[in-house]
Each structure stands twice: as C-alpha cells, then as structure tokens.
Amino acid sequence: MKAFEFRKLSDVELRKRIQEEQDSLSHLKFQSVIGQIQNPMKISQIKRDIARMRTILRQREFEQAPQPVATNTEKVQ
Q1: How far apart are alpha carbons 52 and 1 in whole angstroms?
Q2: Has residue 21 been placed in a domain?
Q3: In a domain, 74, yes or no
Q4: Beta carbons of 14 and 6 less than 8 angstroms apart
Q5: For residue 53, what is the domain's CATH number?
Q6: Which of 7, 37, 43, 68 could make an S-S bridge to 32, C-beta 3.0–4.6 Å?
Q7: pLDDT at residue 3 in the model
Q8: What's the maximum distance between 2 C-alpha atoms anywhere in the chain?
Q9: Number of domains in the chain
Q10: What DSSP assignment string belongs to 30-75?
Q11: How does 4-35 read in b/e, with b if 16+ C-beta sit within 10 Å?
C-alpha cells in the first residue's frame, strides 16, 4: 500500500494492521529459513509497510501533542 492509503485509516486500524503485518513477517521469515518462500522481496515490502504505518502514527502523535510555549529566557545580570 502507499502512504496516502495508510493515512485514510484510523489509529486503531493502523495498529491492528501493524500487528497483522508483523505476524505475516514472522511467518515469511520462518519460510525463508526453511527455504519455502516464493517471493523473498515480500519480506522487504512488509518491513517498509510497517515502517510507513509507524511513521504515520508517530506524525499523528506529534500533531495532537500540545506545542511548547516559547519563553524569553535571557540572563539577568
């Protein structure tokens, strides 16, 4: 999936999707070890998708977090 498609999903859906992809990734890694994997590039695709979803969640966290108030902290002599 592309990043814009992930952005359409809610936070709950993204977290659920991340978990599903991690499960799929572990299964593919196991298949790779025993030599039964059909498409080895699928592992890197899943890793990228997980990273995209985590990045989108993190961006949303920053957007929702309160912005720090800038203060004037000059030294008084």
Answers
A1: 9
A2: yes
A3: no
A4: yes
A5: 1.10.287.310
A6: 37
A7: 87
A8: 73
A9: 1
A10: HHHHHT--S-THHHHHHHHHHHHHHHHHHHHHHHHSPPPPP---PP
A11: eebeebeeeebeebbeebeeebeebeeeeeee
Report pLDDT for 76.
61
Q: For residues 47 and 76, what is the distance between their CA atoms, to the nearest angstrom?
A: 52
Distances (CA, A) of 10 to 1, 27, 42, 65: 15, 26, 25, 17
Joined together, the tokens standing for residue 66 give 């309160």
Q: Which of 39, 48, 44 is nearest to 1 (CA)?
A: 48
The CA distance from 50 to 72, in Å, is 41
| Chain segment 43-69, per-residue pLDDT in tens | 999 999 999 999 999 999 998 878 777
